[in-house]
Amino acid sequence: MKYILVTGGVISGIGKGVIASSLGTILKACGIRVTSIKIDPYINIDAGTFSPYEHGEVFVLDDGGEVDLDLGNYERFLDIKLHRDNNITTGKIYQHVINKERKGDYLGKTVQVVPHITDAIQNWVENVSMVPVDGDNKLPDVCIVELGGTIGDIEGMPFVEAFRQFQFRVKRENFCCIHVSLVPQPGSTGEQKSKPTQNSVRELRGLGLSPDLIVARSESPLNSSVKDKISNFCHVEPQHVIGIHDVPNIYRVPLLLEEQKMVEYFIEHFNLPVPVPRPRKLMMKWRELADRIDRLHKEVHIALVGKYTDLEDAYASVLKALKHAALACNHKVKVKYIEAADLEEKTKSEDPVKYHDAWQQLCSSNGILVPGGFGIRGTEGMILACNWARKTKKPFLGICLGLQCAVIEFARNVLDLKDAASTEFDKDTTNPVVIDMPEHNQGDMGGTMRLGKRRTLFKSDTSVMKKLYDNAEFIEERHRHRYEVNTKYTADMERNGLIFVGQDVEGERMEIMELQNHPFYIAVQYHPEYITRPMKPSPPYLGFIMASCGKLQNYLAKGCRLSPRNGYSDSDFSDDDELSSITSTVSNASLTDKSTS
């Protein structure tokens, strides 16, 4: 097993996750099997109890692990399925060591950071690196480990010390340290400055880790003189200083790494068994993908009515899913972030300008998306957005809480149950159309939801969603929710046109909702954005974007036939031709392999 450690310096949020994912991409393009680990030095056991404003969205894995959003980047770039143990936190490590101490496994010894915590970190990394992630039970060849935070953070010290020891444990020829650092360019001088990187590397070397490669992040391409200075003062060869400047889209990062001979370096350093000539197909597709994104001109405007709109990372996977679907439709997606509370009557009286601006943004969009969330704040605004989309026949997609808000709106305004609500918002409502699940633990918050991959059965052969999922009898998608639709009300809703076309295996949980006589009014209880891929858009998002572009009906009329022609080629053809050439890799990842079921 080969290990690549990615550390960061100067500032956090410098792009270590994208760079780690991109490293994996260029290795995978050579036929190397890659797995990834993200280390978060916070004391939380996992990301499940975080507010989205802390670290962005909580990403959910197949096994129900609630993890850092960087694992979503790894899965999307590498097209792999990670596990909860691929996200290491200080809390997990200390809990593991303390549990062993309580059982007497340390035979009465004094338990210390060194060696017990550092040994636990090393053992965890070694064990997780050997877990298959490609779906074929073959062991990975390379494990990329991203150490969160910045070098010098006090909470990250045990991990730095663990990897200082680890490089000798696995032998230096099987270990590579990459340090990602900022090269600022002050506006007053316009000159790139290498001093922050020099100081960061000096601190890293003082802790016992000497970087083999330095990735210099900058606004503009790295000057050769700055590269030479970093090389001279940081004890690396000039060709091992890799410049990554700001690019139009993140899919160009693997291309920049490849252009700077990163693959050749890894082949030599690790003695990797890469055939000559190297496989080029994946990187050619990746370049075509990046070029095509840059050449998109047609736009589709989507209103995202949410609760955490001040931080874009709170909806990171949703945004990626919209972009992947829009790319398949040859469109550039423009997302209008609308704070749900701004649509409510209370805002109209308190801040009329904000209220009318929010409604203007909503009404001028091509489609409306209501994503997941927790708590009562903003839910009345979400319900108003659902009402407007339903009445005006505007394409609508609801995710998790979005489905629940759509159900509440329908119950209030179609079934005339004026006090219909969720027990999450109103415990005393006489019409609880959304209720908490029996297994929901009202005491503990962490890891107590319905989490991970679950099967959904289609109940209607004429369902739009079933067609979008290639007429599969069932699908498997990832969930993260505590509340569900109350089945006591579903019969009345279906009699009035709101059909629950997808249900769980027992038929007790409503998973997919479609409104009859509407161009596209669909909501799902699961989170389809978690398994979207750049070249495999999620079916619900693809259908939603197609409806917002005015292409869905033609696509369905063609029987959802997909041309073998590459949907990611950039050519000038009519909308009808465009429909027939939309990517044929529509989220097959969400369908269970029939050969193994």
Features:
single chain, 597 residues, alpha/beta, seven-stranded parallel β-sheet, 21 helices, disordered C terminus
- Percentage of residues in DSSP E strands: 15-25%
Kindly state the percentage of residues in helix: 25-40%
| Regions with little confidence, pLDDT below 50 for 5+ residues | 562-597
| SS-derived structural category | alpha/beta
Number of helices: 21
Query: Separation of termini?
Result: 31 Å
How do the strands line up in the largest sheet?
A: 11-10-12-13-21-20-19-16-17
Shape: globular
Task: Give the integer mean of the pLDDT values.
Answer: 88
Largest sheet: 9 strands, mixed
The total of beta strands comes to 21
Write down the Rg: 25 Å
Q: Short summary of the structure?
A:
With 597 residues, this protein is of the alpha/beta class.
